[in-house]
């Protein structure tokens, strides 16, 4: 079980093995609106700024205060270069907002190991860090062990190029299965995302990740930079229930 912020918010238990729904939102009114749909994690990001575009920390802090522990919250630190001091600074700033999880994209190039080494003390100090690997960047799945070693709480697979299709289109099923099983083996929270559509949900649920993450599928015309759409959100919720 993962307890954060003194344990008043609890991520789902590994024993339960139910897949939760992570919903990405970009502003306070969207966060309050998605709360009504009883999602499992509210993920704060600015989709117009990239795959893991960040919201400014003042906005994040305001949303954390408004949600007031009713749902776990994650936030991204942006599409940043893999320079240890740049990432550590962004993570430290984001941690001050009180979010439960901080998502860090591991983009091609740069100093991955140096970044992990620099983040390890923050993880040891209690920050719940989630590494994000990109399925359309030929992810080396053996790197999952390095996240565990650095003290990360979990790892997500997402896509960088949102026009490249949904995760099951860019990564073969056996690679997705291998990723989930590697995370389980290492007792890391495991998330799958990447332009997922409601039709992708049943097959991915069979892999039993801890979370499936969505932005585009929750929006008008499946446009991740557009507004949330209640019918689209309900279609995703329904696919979860039927899966
Ligand atoms: O963390 C999940 C992402 O926000 C997924 O965004 P997307 O569904 O538009 O690829």
Describe what you observe in this structure.
Helices cover 35% and strands 17% of the residues. With 243 residues, the chain is an alpha/beta fold. The chain has a single domain (20-242), classed as TIM Barrel, CATH 3.20.20. β3, α1 and β4 form a beta-alpha-beta unit. α1 packs parallel to α2 (57-67). The chain starts with a strand and ends with a helix. Residues 1-16 have low confidence and may be disordered. Bound molecules: glyceraldehyde-3-phosphate (G3H). The active site is at 45 (schiff-base intermediate with substrate), 103 (proton acceptor). Pfam families: 4HFCP_synth. This is (5-formylfuran-3-yl)methyl phosphate synthase. One of its GO terms (molecular function) is lyase activity. It catalyses: 2 D-glyceraldehyde 3-phosphate = 4-(hydroxymethyl)-2-furancarboxaldehyde phosphate + phosphate + 2 H2O.
Counting H and I runs of at least 4 residues, what is the number of helices?
A: 9
CATH class: Alpha Beta
CATH superfamily: Aldolase class I
Principal-axes shape call? globular
Fraction in helix: 25-40%
Ligands, ions, cofactors: glyceraldehyde-3-phosphate
Radius of gyration, in angstroms, nearest whole number: 16 Å
Number of strands: 10
The major beta sheet can be summarized as: 8 strands, parallel, barrel
CATH fold-level name:
TIM Barrel
How far the N terminus sits from the C terminus, by CA atoms, comes to 24 Å
Looking across the biggest beta sheet, what order are the strands in?
3-4-5-6-7-8-9-10
Uncertain runs are 1-16
Please provide the ordered H/E string of secondary-structure elements. Answer: EEEHEHEHEHEHEHHEHEH
Proportion of strand residues: 15-25%
Q: Which structural category do the helix and sheet elements fall into?
A: alpha/beta
Mean pLDDT level = 92
Enzyme class: lyase
EC number: 4.2.3.153
Function: Catalyzes the formation of 4-(hydroxymethyl)-2-furancarboxaldehyde phosphate (4-HFC-P) from two molecules of glyceraldehyde-3-P (GA-3-P).
Catalytic activity: 2 D-glyceraldehyde 3-phosphate = 4-(hydroxymethyl)-2-furancarboxaldehyde phosphate + phosphate + 2 H2O
């Amino acid at each position: 079980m993962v307890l954060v912020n003194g344990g008043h918010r609890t991520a789902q238990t590994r024993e339960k093995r139910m897949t939760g729904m992570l919903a990405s939102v970009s502003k306070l009114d969207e966060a309050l609106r998605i709360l009504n749909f009883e999602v499992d994690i509210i993920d704060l990001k600015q989709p117009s700024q990239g795959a893991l575009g960040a919201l400014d920390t003042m906005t994040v802090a305001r949303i954390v205060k408004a949600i007031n522990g009713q749902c776990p919250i994650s936030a991204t630190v942006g599409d940043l270069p893999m320079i240890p001091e740049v990432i550590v600074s962004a993570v430290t700033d984001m941690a001050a907002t009180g979010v439960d999880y901080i998502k860090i994209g591991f983009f091609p190039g740069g100093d991955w190991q140096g970044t992990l080494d620099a983040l390890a003390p923050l993880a040891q100090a209690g920050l719940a860090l989630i590494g994000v690997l990109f399925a359309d960047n030929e992810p080396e799945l053996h790197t999952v062990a390095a996240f565990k070693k650095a003290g990360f709480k979990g790892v997500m697979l997402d896509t960088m190029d949102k026009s490249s299709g949904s995760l099951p289109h860019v990564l073969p099923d056996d690679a997705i299965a291998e990723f989930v099983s590697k995370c389980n083996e290492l007792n890391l929270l495991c998330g799958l995302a990447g332009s997922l559509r409601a039709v992708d949900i049943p097959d991915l649920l069979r892999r039993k990740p801890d979370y499936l993450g969505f932005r585009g599928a929750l929006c008008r015309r499946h446009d991740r930079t557009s507004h949330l759409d209640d019918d689209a959100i309900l279609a995703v919720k329904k696919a979860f229930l039927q899966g």
